[in-house]
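queue> pop job 88
queue> type: inverse folding (structure -> sequence)
queue> payload:
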């Protein structure tokens, strides 16, 4: 485990994840007016989840008396590299990075390492660099499994408990994946295909276009416009008479684009999956349109991340719960992985309203 950033242990040890545990301590140097600075680089404000991520990390760090430089790169890789360079130059004590392109940060992270600045990969693994100290994310393989499971449940191939119903179809589906430069996208895809493959092999599921390889179904930069463009290519077979029963969608912005494209083509609504429980999709799930989404609580992800930063800058070891899954091509990055939650019309109130993410009015 990297030790290079270890400095004077100015603060009490924080071992437990949780706001109560964290709020008991404040940042090193807070009393003498020399507050440590944390650079937080996020990918884009084009999707609600990243705005919530940035806000949550910033407010939780500030509550522990850290200064925060929060930047968004609007999905432009050179901009993100430049922002990280600026954070290093201004003397950041730690970096939290939600990367755009998982392999584009090698050089700038080498600069961070040379300046003794620890780096936490936030939600997305940073690849091909030995200068990533920790990874805070969700169980991304599980997200893919959950997406595929909800697709099969929506089609009636699996029941609510996840058991096969014996429905033999054939059901015609299409598959979408996320951005090829985001490590998460392949992890989601692999998790989903592990569930879907047996049904594709047995003929219960048929991919109408025949496009099943990751490269054929990836959506550059997760951009809903690219999903709309691909739907325009896929839809003629269905407007000509074939029935589209379901679509595996990896992210809510893409799910909404798919639902709109189908609607505009005058076709019946297929079973569509999602991820992030963004407001438009949460409303759509509540209204019985989008079949499901996967909720990943960014408040918890911020807590895990802030715990890591605080431990590192206090000279203690961050808490992790996975030391095997995330090999980034150079090292296996010690990780803390949180549990994602399925959201459907049946449980959205319990998860999203009772859990405090949205009010009932916002979803009506
Ligand atoms: C995140 C997802 C998100 C996607 C698009 C992924 O890396 O894990 O939550 O839907 O990026 O922003």
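queue> result:
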């Amino acid at each position: 485990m990297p030790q290079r950033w270890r400095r004077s242990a100015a603060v009490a040890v924080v071992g437990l994840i949780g706001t109560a545990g964290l709020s008991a301590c404040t940042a090193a140097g807070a009393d003498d007016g020399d507050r440590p600075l944390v650079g937080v680089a996020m990918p884009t404000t084009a999707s609600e989840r990243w705005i919530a991520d940035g806000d949550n990390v910033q407010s939780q760090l500030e509550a522990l008396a850290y200064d925060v430089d929060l930047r968004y790169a609007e999905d432009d890789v050179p901009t993100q590299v430049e922002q990280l360079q600026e954070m290093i130059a201004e003397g950041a004590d730690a970096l939290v990075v939600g990367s755009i392109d998982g392999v584009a940060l090698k050089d700038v992270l080498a600069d961070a390492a040379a300046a003794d600045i620890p780096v936490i990969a936030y939600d997305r693994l940073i690849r091909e660099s030995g200068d990533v100290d920790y990874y805070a994310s969700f169980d991304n393989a599980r997200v893919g499994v959950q997406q595929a499971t909800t697709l099969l449940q929506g089609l009636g191939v699996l029941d609510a408990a996840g058991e096969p119903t014996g429905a033999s179809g054939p059901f015609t589906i299409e598959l979408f994946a996320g951005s090829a430069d985001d490590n998460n996208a392949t992890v989601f895809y692999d998790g989903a295909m592990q569930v879907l493959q047996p049904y594709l092999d047995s003929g219960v599921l048929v991919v109408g276009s025949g496009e099943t390889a990751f490269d054929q179904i990836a959506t550059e930069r997760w951009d809903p416009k690219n999903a709309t463009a691909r739907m325009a290519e896929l839809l003629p077979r269905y407007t000509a008479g074939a029935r589209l029963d379901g679509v595996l969608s990896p992210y809510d912005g893409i799910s909404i684009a798919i639902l709109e494209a189908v609607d505009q083509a005058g076709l019946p609504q297929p079973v569509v999956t999602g991820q992030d429980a963004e407001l438009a999709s949460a409303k759509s799930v509540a209204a019985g349109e989008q079949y499901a989404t996967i909720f990943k609580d960014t408040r918890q992800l911020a807590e895990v991340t802030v715990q890591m930063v605080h431990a590192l800058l206090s000279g203690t070891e961050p808490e992790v719960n996975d030391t095997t899954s995330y090999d980034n091509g150079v090292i296996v990055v010690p990780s803390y992985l949180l549990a994602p939650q399925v959201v459907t019309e049946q449980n959205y109130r319990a998860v999203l309203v009772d859990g405090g993410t949205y009010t009932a009015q916002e979803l009506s």
